Amino acid sequence: METILLVDDESDVRDLARDILTAKGYRVLEAGGGEEAVRVVQSHGEPIDLLLTDVVMPRMQGNELAARLGTLRPGVRVLYMSGYAQPILGDDGTLQDGVLLVEKPFTETGLLASVDHAVHAAPQGGTPQPVAGA
Question: What is the reported pTM?
Answer without folding.
Answer: 0.85
